[in-house]
């Protein structure tokens, strides 16, 4: 069960980062209100806080998190941007998630 908890913590971390980057993008590229920068900053603060909840060494957490981020970005592409990921997007996400699993769940000596 710790693997499922870890995956969902990574997923929540990725959503917080994506929202924190997407809102300024809306302001800069789509002409939305600059007030979006406030929830963007809050979302990025949550992202940083969530990273601190991972139990492993920071470098390993960041490396493993990257795989989940890739997959979550494709989910965002589909659900928010309305663009269906290609088969190659999905293959790439699967490879990234496999790498994440190897990094995050490999047996470690004491």
Q: If you average the pLDDT, what whole number results?
A: 91
Radius of gyration: 15 Å
Number of domains: 1
> What is the helical fraction, as a range of percent?
over 70%
Poorly predicted tracts of residues? none
Helix-strand category: mainly alpha
Q: What overall form do the CA principal axes indicate?
A: flat
Element-level helix/strand string = HHHH
Largest sheet: none
Helix segment count? 4
Can you give me a brief rundown of this structure?
It contains 4 helices and no strands. The chain has helices at residues 2-30, 37-52, 58-79, 87-105.
If you had to describe this structure to a student in words, what would you say it looks like?
This protein is mainly alpha-helical. It has 4 helices and no strands. It has helices at residues 2-30, 37-52, 58-79, 87-105.
